Amino acid sequence: MRTTRTVSAVAAVATLVAGSVLTTTPAQAKAGTTPLTEVLAADGNRYDRSWDDFDVAEKAVRAVIKADPNSPVAVLADGDTALTAFVPTDRAFRKLVTSIAGERPATEKATFAAVASLGLDTVEDVLLYHVVPGATVKYAAAKKSDGARLETALGKHIGINVAGGEVRIVDADRNARNARVIAAAKNINLGNKQIAHGIDRVLRPMDL
Fold first, then answer.
1. How far is CA 162 from CA 4, 46, 138, 152, 173, in A?
2. Residue 77 has what DSSP assignment?
3. Angle at 32 between CA 26 and CA 38, to 5 degrees
4. 128 φ, ψ to 5°?
5. Which PANTHER family did the record assign (predicted)?
6. pLDDT of residue 41
7. How far from 84 is each of 32, 95, 169, CA to CA, in Å?
8. What is the pLDDT at residue 208?
């Protein structure tokens, strides 16, 4: 796998662009250090029949780390490093596979296999595009931040769009619908240095 990025680069402070009103909470000594990899696997390190949890994302992270322990994706297993992640549900990954392959996988296992077939370099890029390093962004702050742009661990930006009481994440793909933050899956791992929000679509770092 590529080694052009470093974990230290991923841990850099998030960049807020274009007059954003977004406020972030810097990591504090009292914040917990439970990493997101543990939280995403809270229901067990296995596939199941719930499409609304994060088994595919968790397995994708672990697959990248197994292939390259020095991958910057490993930051998601380092609870001492502050970050915010927008994590697609299993259903979101199935939507991605369906849009690319034209067929909807029947199981989470098949969904992960299809994602992995894109190549671990691609999977690594996609995962990093969902990570905002350096600080926590709580859901309440995001709801007050229409128009904010955030620099991701991939080095590309995502935007925040707030409309109708919903928070949507604007990615680089103009041909697909923007991901919605799932209110019932907000502030995952709250109180720790790593926080996440579940989203209903996979963010794309380029037009597809």
1. 34, 34, 14, 19, 18
2. G
3. 115
4. -65, -30
5. FI19380P1 (PTHR10900:SF77), PERIOSTIN-RELATED (PTHR10900)
6. 86
7. 14, 23, 13
8. 58
What's the whole-model pTM score?
0.88
3-state secondary structure of 142: helix
Burial class of 106 by CB neighbour count within 10 A (0 to 12, 13 to 18, 19+): exposed
DSSP state of 46: S
At 136-166, the pLDDT tens digits run 899 999 999 999 999 999 999 999 999 999 9
**DSSP-based three-state secondary structure for 125:** helix
Q: What does the pLDDT look like over 55-87, one tens digit per residue?
A: 999 999 999 999 999 999 999 999 999 999 999
Distances (CA, A) of 203 to 49, 58, 80, 89: 23, 16, 25, 11
Domains contained in the chain, CATH given = 7-199 (2.30.180.10)
Q: How far apart are the C-alpha atoms of 34 and 108, rounded to whole Å?
A: 25
